[in-house]
Write a structure and sequence with these properties.
This protein is 52% helix and 0% strand. It starts with 13 loop residues before the first helix and ends in a 5-residue tail after the last helix. It has one domain. By secondary structure, it is mostly helical.
């Protein structure tokens, strides 16, 4: 498979994470799945080979989005979007 110039990180495909033998990945994916689209965003799926990394990323995100009462979540998301655009981060 040719991925062009894009970075490529191996992940466990959507149809396989549900069969995780110890259930940790399935449990974590249940927490991060996009309810509207029924899928896990790529930025989270890159952690599928290291579920503890996924848990840490998710905890960091949750902390950043709920860390203070002075900003609404929508405001935090807007700040994250602007920072990503300024950093030319296109995920």
């Amino acid at each position: 498979m040719d991925h062009g110039d894009a970075a490529w990180i191996e992940t466990i495909p959507d149809e396989r994470w549900r069969d995780d033998p110890d259930g940790l990945l399935a449990e974590l994916y249940g927490q991060v799945v996009d309810g509207e689209h029924g899928r896990v965003d790529h930025i989270m799926a890159v952690h599928s080979l290291n579920p503890r990394g996924l848990a840490a990323h998710h905890n960091l995100y949750e902390s950043a989005m709920a860390g203070t009462a002075s900003l609404r979540k929508v405001d935090r998301e807007m700040i994250a979007l602007v920072v990503s655009i300024e950093n030319e981060c296109h995920y």
